[in-house]
Amino acid sequence: MNKEIVFQEFLGGRVRLVEGDITRLDVDAIVNAANKSLLGGGGVDGAIHRAAGPQLVEACKKIGGCETGNAVITPGFNLKARYVIHTVGPVWQGGNHDEPGLLASCYRKSLELASQHPIKSIAFTNISTGIYGFPKEAAAQVAINTTTKFLEINDLSSIVWFVCFDKENYNLYLSHLSSKY
Ligand code: ADP
User: Fold this and answer.
1) Catalytic residue among 21, 45, 155, 166
2) Residue 98 is a catalytic residue
3) How far is the CA of 180 from the centre of ligand 1 (A)?
4) 180 within 8 A of 166, measured Cβ to Cβ
5) Ligand 1: does its nearest atom lie under 6 Å from the Cβ of 169?
């Protein structure tokens, strides 16, 4: 359970916002901001691989890679989460390389995968807003708009968590979610 975790609820409880470390969350699936190789890296990717244990990279090796904007699923191994969904966010290249479209695709494909598995709760990190350099304000809008639209259209019964590791992202999400929902 997530008893010790303080979160805010939106959209009638279907969306939750929390500040913290995604590897510690007790949910059915966490979404990793992976790179195309799927073999681990820095940031949240490194944290997830460390917490899941070496079996995770073995499972990722078998998949063989993932394109930008796409998502794949593995078990969560030593994590509390039963699944890890690995999605590859776009590297920010100034905004004229379909970065918002590719980021939206990451959220959509991850939610599609969730809807095809026994996943009742899924947690997203702030994909592409670290090493990949996507502006945080724009990324928060893409994440929230894409997710809420998916929930409305697909009637997905999962609870979606937005997990913000840094205060800046948390405040952006809080303000955007509060103003809309
Ligand atoms: P990307 O390469 O997609 O930018 P990063 O891992 O560098 O991926 O950053 C993505 C986001 O994940 C950033 O906002 C960063 O603050 C956040 N992050 C880093 N570590 C964690 C963690 N343990 N839990 C949740 N989010 C994290």
Assistant:
1) 45
2) no
3) 25
4) no
5) yes
Task: Dig out the tokens for 126 from the structure.
Answer: 């702030």
Instruction: Yes or no: say if 29 and 123 are a contact pair by the CB < 8 Å rule.
Output: yes
Instruction: Tell me the per-residue pLDDT of 1-35, one tens digit each, with 9 for 90 and over.
Output: 577 789 999 999 999 999 999 999 999 999 999 99
> Quick check: CB of 121 below 6 Å from ligand 1?
no
> Helix (H, G, I), strand (E, B), or coil: what is residue 137?
helix
pLDDT in tens, 49-84: 999 999 999 999 999 999 999 999 999 999 999 999
CATH numbers and ranges of domains, the chain: 14-180 (3.40.220.10)
- Which residues neighbour 44 within 8 Å (Cβ) at sequence distance 6 or greater? 22, 32, 33, 125, 130, 165
Name the residue with tokens 């979160």.
Answer: 7
- Regarding the beta carbon of 126 and ligand 1, being less than 6 Å apart is answered yes
pTM for the complete prediction? Answer: 0.97
Range 142-149, long-range pairs (CB < 8 A, 24+ positions): 142/100, 142/103, 142/104, 142/107, 143/103, 143/107, 143/173, 144/173, 144/176, 144/177, 144/180, 145/104, 146/103, 146/104, 146/107, 146/108, 147/15, 147/107, 147/111, 148/11, 148/15, 148/180, 148/181
Residues in the chain: 181
Say how many Å lie between the CA of residue 51 and the centre of ligand 1.
14
